Amino acid sequence: MKKVIITGSNGLLGQSLLELLLQEKENYQVFGFSRGKNRTGRTDFDYVSIDITDKNRLKNEVEKINPDFIINTAAMTQVDDCETNKKACDTLNVDVVKWLAEISSTINCHLIQISTDFIFDGKKGYYKETDAPNPLSYYGLSKLKSEEVLTNSTIDFTILRTILVYGKVYNMSRNNIVLWVKKMLENQQEITIVDDQYRMPTYVVDLAMACKIAIDKKAIGIFNIASNTLLSVYQIAQEIANCFGLNKDFIKPISTATLNQTAPRPAKTGFDLTKTNSQLSFYPKSFTEDLKRFKRKINKNHI
């Protein structure tokens, strides 16, 4: 029986991990850490209401449980907010990871950290795990710093880099690109979408599975997790419309320059998935196939 703490258990990835790991209660004892009430709609795991930026409380709660694995899904991910509120960004994205690494070192625990394509400048695309980072935004810099905390440590760690995560779970507090495009088109509202940024969107169910594989294989190091197709964000919106049978005429292409966003975004990311295929035996599918899986899930679960 492996003891697993999931930080940010109320979030999209946190809830998806709960759903996955709790299917095997004989193998995993799961603890969820999140702020406020348990919003997951399920009570078959141990929930700890906690602000993980309280270092002493975090240390006490983790040491009390003495887990084998911690999966840190908590992060400040709103890119423009990170640019304007660097202190809060550093606290959640860097300091918390330092504290978790220190605690993991003391109790001999394996730490799984989620990172991002935004550690790269987007000049080349199809990034390998070994490519040199060069973040354009403070968000990207904070996630790179969190990676460096682990790569410079002596603990067992897994870093899963991912891109544009989407999905749907119970009682969500945050939106994502698929749900937003779907809702806007269902309401027949026009949306403007950049056609000069390229991404490989990640279905949250796959990211959760990658976390589980990292536990089961005790995978050490950095791995890329995304779908296997590089698309412009405009093409991504078109695919969403196709999948859900919605009117593509409401989708209007624009350039990034017209947005005047606070934080710069990398133009072209995307990942080389060779290492993920070979070392994790994990083979992500195309965005089109993943969308079909997502559609079946929301139709079946009525979420």
Structure keywords:
303 residues; alpha/beta; Rossmann fold; two-stranded parallel sheet; 13 strands; 18% strand
Strand order of the largest sheet: 3-2-1-4-5-6-11
Helix content: 25-40%
Q: How can the largest sheet be summarized?
A: 7 strands, parallel
Total domain units: 1
Number of E-type strands? 13
Shape: globular
Q: What do you see in this structure?
A:
The longest helix is centred in the first third of the chain and has 22 residues, at 86-107. This protein starts with a strand and ends with a helix. It has a single domain (2-174, 201-228, 269-285), classed as NAD(P)-binding Rossmann-like Domain (Rossmann fold), CATH 3.40.50.720. Helix 8 packs across helix 10. It has 303 residues and is an alpha/beta fold. Strand 1, helix 1 (12-21) and strand 2 (28-34) form a beta-alpha-beta unit. The protein has helices at residues 12-21, 55-65, 79-84, 86-107, 138-151, 177-186, 204-217, 233-244, 274-280, 287-301, and strands spanning 2-7, 28-34, 46-49, 69-72, 110-116, 157-162, 165-166, 191-194, 198-199, 202-203, 221-225, 231-232, 251-254. The model has no long low-confidence stretch (mean pLDDT 97). It contains ten helices and 13 strands. It has a seven-stranded parallel sheet with strand order 3-2-1-4-5-6-11, with helices on both faces.
